[in-house]
Amino acid sequence: MSKFILIGESEMAMTTASYRPEVDGLRAVAVLPVILFHAGFERFDGGYVGVDVFFVVSGYLITGIIYREILKGSFSIAHFYERRARRILPALFCVSVVCLIFAWFWMLPNEFEILSESLIAVNLFVANIYFWQSLDYFAGPAEMQAFLHTWSLAVEEQFYFFFPLFMLLVGGLRKGFLLATIALGLLASLALAEYASSHHPTANFYLLPTRAWELLTGAVIAIYMQDRKGSFPLLARHVGGGVGLAMILFAVFFFDETTPFPSLWAVVPVLGTALVILLSNGSDIVGRLLSWRPVVGIGLISYSAYLWHQPVFVFAKERSLEPISDLGFLTLSVFSLLLAWFSWRFVELPFRNRRNFTRGQIFKSALAMSCLMIGVGVFGKYSGGIPWRFDEEVQRIVDARYIKHDVPELCHATTGRMLSIEDACEYNEKGEGIVVVWGDSHATPLVPPVADLVDALGMKVKMLVYTNCLPIAGYTRESEPNCGVFNNKVMDYLLDNDDIEMVIMLGRYPLQFEAEVFDNGEGGIENGVSQRAIPIDPSIDVSKDDGTRIEIVGQLLEETVNQLVNVGKRVVLVYPVPEVGWDVPVLLAKEKIFGVEREAPLSISYELFRERAETSYRQLSRVEENESVLKVDPAELLCNTYLTGRCSAQLEDTLFYYDSNHLSVTGAAMLVEYMFHKMVGKGWVNGSVLELGSQNT
C-alpha cells in the first residue's frame, strides 16, 4: 500500500514537505470535541471550537501546497480544484444519499422540506448563508438539522474560491511583503468578527468575512515555515506546544454558547492551534502525543467523522420516541467513528487515487451528483416535503403541527426583527373599540378566535406579540434587551390610547420564572433553551437566582395590570398554558409511522404541572380579580377534566397543542370560548356574542 493510501489526508501536507503526523493528530483534537458537543455533553460546551482548529489546520495545509507550487511555477487552478473535489465531494455525496434514504422513511413532511432546502444549500456551498438566514446554531431546533455542520464546509469552499486567485496575484512577492499583506487581511477580519459578535452575532458565526482570519492564520504559518532552515529550541517546543494544546482544551471545556464567538475570545483556540503547528514535532511532548497512532488514526478519518456524526445524532433522535441517554449518545459517537473509517477507507481513499478516476471523471461525476442532489432538494421543497409518503391518518396528525394558526409570521416581533406598534397586525379593521392581545408566542393562537368573537361586537383586535417576551412592563428577557424596549412601547401605547377597551395578556411564565425547559418526568423533555425573566433596571442585582428576581418581576406584573386598570382598561389575565414536554403532533405521528400502539391519550401529570407553575401562580395571584380584571386558567379546561389527575394533550383525534407547549387551532378556540363565557358571566359582553362568533368560525 502506498504512502498516500496509508496517510490519506496528508497528501495535502506532502509533496516536497515531510509528512507531519502531529498535524493529523491535531485534527483528532478538533473533531472529537465537536462530536461530543453535538452529543450534548455539558463538559464539552465549548466543543464547537473544534471547527476553528479545523480552519487553522486547513489554511496551513492548503496554503502550503499552493505556495510551494507557486514558487516552483507549477500551480494550476484546475489541479487545485480537482484535489478539492476528490477530497470533499465523494464522502459528502455518500452521506447525503444515506440521509435522504432515512429521511424518506422517518421524516415528517415539514422536516423533509427543511432537509431538502438545506440539501440545495449544501450542494451550492452556501449552507452557511442558508443557516444564517434560518437558524441560530445554538438554538434547540438546530439539533434536528442533519446538514447543520456543513456550514463550515461552505465557509472553506468560499474561501478557497478566492484565495488561490489571490495567491496567484501576490504569491511571487517577497515573503515579508506577502506575510504582511495576509496579516492585514487577518487583522481586518478579526476586527470585523469582534464588532459583529455584539452587533450581528448570527451572521458573525456563520459567514466568511468574520471567519477568514482563522484560515489566514494557518496561511501565515505555512508561508512563514516554507523553506525555513533550522528549528526552535527543544524547550520552546515543549513549552509552546504545551501552551497551545492547553489553550485549545481551555476553550473546549470553559467556553459555551454565551461566549461571543468568533471574537477576541476565538483567539484562544486559534492561537493555541497555531502554536502547536508552529512549534510541535516528533521531539516534544505534545508532538509525540499527537503523533500517537490511535490519535493520528482518528485524525485521518476526521473529515468523514465530521460529516457522519450530526446525521447519526439527528436520525437517532428521529427514530427514538424517548430522550437518548448519555450512554446512548456515547455509543452513537463511537458508531460515527466506525462509519467514518468505512467512509474514509472505501469512499475517500479510492476517489483520491488518480489511478482510479481521471480528472474528467471526477468533474463530470461531481457535476452530475450535484445536479441530482439539487434536483431532489427542489422537488422535496416544492412538493411540501413529499407528504404522500405517509397515509392520511399521519398527515391529519401532522396538519395540527404545521397549521398552527392563521397569523402571518411577520405579525410577530422576535429577536432581530423589532416590530413597531404602528405596523402591528390588526383584525376587523372597521371596528371602533380595540381589544389588544399582548404577550409572547403563547398569545398568538388566541388572536384569530378572539377576532372572530369581537367582530360581532364591532371591535378591532390588535396583536402585540414578541416571541419569548412576557407581557410585563419594566421587565426584559435576559440577553434580549429589545424585549423590554418593545414592552415599554406597548405599555405607553395602551395607556395613551382611549380606544383600547380590553387587554388580553398571556405569556409562558414558568419557562422564564424557573429558567429551565420543561421535563414532564415521563420521557418528554422540551427541545429548547432556558430563559430568564429579569427587571430592566440595571441597578437591581439578579446574578443570584435566590427568588428576588422572580419577586421583582412579579411586582412589575402587578404594577402593569394596575396601571391599565387605573386608566379604564379591562384586563384578561391568562394563567400558564400547561406544558407537555413532548412535541404532541410529532410524537403521535411518529408512533403511527413506527407502528406503536398508544394505550391511553397523551397527557402529563397534573400534580407535576402545578409544581412547575407554582411560582407563576403565586406571582399572578398578586393581581386581585375585580370588576376590571378577569383571570382565566387554561388548566381548568385541560387538567383533571378528560382524565383524572392528568393534563390532556389530546381528546381522541383532537389535538390541543401544535408542539410541546403552544395551543393548536382547536385548543386556542376552546380557551377563547371559555374566556368569553367568563366575560359573559362577568357582564362584560352579551351572551349572543358566542353564538355570532361560532357562526363566523
Give a description of the structure:
By secondary structure, the chain is of the alpha/beta class. It is built from 27 helices and 13 strands. The chain has helices at residues 3-7, 21-38, 50-72, 77-106, 109-123, 127-134, 151-170, 175-199, 201-206, 212-225, 234-254, 267-279, 285-290, 293-300, 302-319, 326-352, 359-382, 392-402, 447-455, 481-496, 509-514, 548-566, 584-593, 606-620, 635-638, 665-682, 688-696; strands at 412-413, 426-427, 433-439, 459-466, 475-477, 500-506, 533-535, 570-574, 603-605, 629-632, 646-648, 650-651, 654-655. The strands form four sheets. Strands 1, 2, 3, 4, 6, 8 and 10 form a seven-stranded mixed sheet that branches. Strand 3, helix 19 and strand 4 (459-466) form a beta-alpha-beta unit. Helix 22 (548-566) crosses helix 24 (606-620). The longest helix has 30 residues, at 77-106. The protein is elongated, with a radius of gyration of 29 Å.
